[in-house]
Structures are given as C-alpha cells and as structure tokens.
Amino acid sequence: MVLLKAVLASMPTYAMSCFKLPKSLCKQIQSVLTRFWWDIKPELRKMYWISWDKLTFPKGAGGLRFREIEVFNDALLSKHTWKLLRNPNSLLGQTLLNKYCQHQDILTCSAPNAASHGWRGILAGRDIISRGMVWFFGNGE
C-alpha cells in the first residue's frame, strides 16, 4: 500500500499519455487517491464531508481541481491524436499514418489486429476528439 501511494505521488503521466489504461486500474488508482486524502490509516477511515465529484471542480467553483484519472487518461491520449491531425507530416505522423492509415485518414481508419498498444491509445483519443469535432462551412474568414 505504501509503495502504491509512492508510485501514485509521481503520477505516471507519460504512460497515461501513451496507453489507454483499463477502467479497473483507473478505479483502483482513484480509490487509492481518495483514501490518501481522507483516511488516516488503512484500518481507520474518516467521514467524507465533500463528495469526490465536487472536489474535481475548479477552485473558482468550490472544488480543489482534483483529476478524474480516466478522463485525464483520455485527455492525454487526445493530445497525441490532435497533434497527428494538425501535423501529419511530422516524423511520428509519417511513421504511424503510413503504417496504419495508408488508404484512409486518421478519423476513419480502424485498428488492425496487430496494432500496437500505442496506436490503440491514439485511436481511443481519436474517439474523444471526434465526439467534440464539428465542421464549419464558409469562405475561411
């Protein structure tokens, strides 16, 4: 338990930005974080005066800006997808898009059976971006 708290203190954001963590692991990390803030000892639990959902609000809205682990993981994965959409000619873009999206764009391609965990994470970020993406028609101004 102490080792897990030490690992979580230096939140593995690099791994979270590259790979989609399973929901069970996200819940376990979230549980350890809540117990870190509210419990004195593992066998002695305190009263939760404010719900975790309210603590994730911004400070201006009365929260402490704690992060939901699963949402944070999705946001980090979406950053890589956004970089590939905005700059497909980068070295990473050329490598990944030529390997996985030869005849399609990144928004419509699917993951082959032999896709790497990193590419599957990028596709998970793509799903997040595509839910919030809209098209504007006009003359460019």
Question: Can you give a write-up of this model?
Answer:
This protein has 7 helices and no strands. It has 141 residues and is mainly alpha-helical. It has 2 domains: 2-70, no CATH class; 74-132, no CATH class. It is elongated. The model has no long low-confidence stretch (mean pLDDT 81).
Question: Strand-and-helix sequence, N→C?
Answer: HHHHHHH
Sheet-strand content, in percent, reads under 5%
In angstroms, what is the radius of gyration? 19 Å
How many domains, as an integer?
2
Determine the number of helices (DSSP H or I, runs of at least 4 residues): 7
What is the residue-mean pLDDT, rounded to a whole number?
A: 81
**Morphology call:** elongated
**Biggest sheet layout:** none
Structural class: mainly alpha
